């Protein structure tokens, strides 16, 4: 509704990209340390290790996001935030060709794409191909999104004091259904161990290495993926954000670009005999904005922004 021209969100599993894709706007999750995060309120326990949160823009275009990030990157944030890297904006080097090599992230078998997103991604690939860009099918080349999400949420639950649940319990309010996807609300989950933390770090390192290898071996500029298996869904049915949390776990910058809308008639031929999570409710989501997600390399935020502007322009035609 254009109530704001630009805002800043925070993100540890997808909380920049998910509101953006639900509302049909542009959202950019930078690499850790590029945007300062000091003094932010946290529901978690101080000193928590694992996956670091980030802050980034939600806005109406890649151009808007680029403007904010240029200003913030050049602001010497490391003078105010011990965890800020203080890396100034660096324009990517000129390329000999404007053609992008785009890796296509395969669907997670346990979280199949809803018909609207399957159609929109197919249309996006068609537009990119028609514009001369190269598409590389990454089927069987990438780590499991389900495994990555499982590792990520084990990191989120590693606090033995269960600080987040304690805050909710003290409020006297009931737990919302969404928390069941993140925490064991029964309190019976085994207490995390130091050995378990080592194992999680090793598992994350393996997936991070697999992603780097996919980028390098296939000479990719960017990966094209869904940010979620659907467009916006009814409250408290979202579930585990498997398509976004991997970007946080491996600390790769990522963004979502609005593209297309749910359309029951156009989506009908994409309906499959699979278990949609959450349920596919075409009339509930009719007309809702759809999207694509782009994933870049760690600390190469400027390159991802450059590629996002190219993709955004192609999809707008």
Automatic annotation (TrEMBL):
It holds the Pfam family Amidase. The keyword Hydrolase applies. Keywords: Hydrolase. The keyword RNA-binding does not apply. InterPro entries: Amidase_dom, AS_sf. GO terms for molecular function: hydrolase activity. Residues 2-304 form the Amidase domain. Belongs to the amidase family. This is Amidase domain-containing protein. It comes from Fusarium oxysporum (Fusarium vascular wilt).
């Amino acid at each position: 509704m254009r109530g704001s021209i630009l805002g800043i969100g925070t993100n540890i599993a997808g909380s920049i990209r998910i509101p953006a894709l639900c509302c049909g706007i542009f959202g950019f999750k930078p690499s850790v340390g590029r945007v300062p995060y000091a003094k932010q309120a946290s529901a978690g326990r101080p000193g928590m290790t694992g996956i670091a949160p980030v802050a980034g823009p939600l806005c109406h275009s890649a151009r808007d996001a680029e403007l904010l990030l240029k200003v913030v990157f050049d602001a010497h944030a490391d003078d105010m935030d011990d965890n800020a890297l203080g890396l100034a904006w660096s324009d990517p080097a000129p390329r000999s060709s404007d053609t992008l090599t785009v890796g296509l992230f395969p669907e997670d078998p346990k979280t199949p794409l809803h018909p609207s997103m399957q159609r929109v991604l197919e249309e996006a690939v068609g537009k990119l191909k028609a514009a001369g860009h190269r598409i590389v099918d990454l089927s069987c080349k990438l780590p499991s999104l389900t495994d990555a999400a499982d590792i990520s949420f084990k990191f989120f639950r590693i606090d033995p004091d269960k600080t987040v649940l304690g805050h909710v319990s003290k409020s006297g309010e009931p737990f919302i259904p969404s928390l069941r996807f993140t925490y064991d609300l029964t309190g019976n989950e085994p207490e995390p161990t130091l050995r378990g933390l080592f194992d999680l770090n090793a598992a994350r390192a393996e997936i991070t290495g697999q992603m780097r290898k996919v980028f390098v071996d296939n000479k990719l500029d960017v990966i094209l993926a869904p940010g979620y298996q659907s467009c916006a869904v009814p409250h408290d049915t979202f579930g585990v954000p498997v398509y976004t949390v991997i970007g946080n776990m491996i600390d790769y910058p990522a963004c979502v670009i609005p593209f297309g809308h749910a359309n029951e008639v156009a989506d009908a031929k994409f309906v499959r005999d699979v278990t949609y999570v959450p349920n596919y409710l075409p009339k509930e989501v009719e007309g809702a904005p759809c999207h694509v997600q782009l994933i870049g390399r760690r600390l190469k935020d400027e390159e991802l922004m450059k590629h996002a502007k190219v993709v955004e322009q192609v999809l707008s035609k």
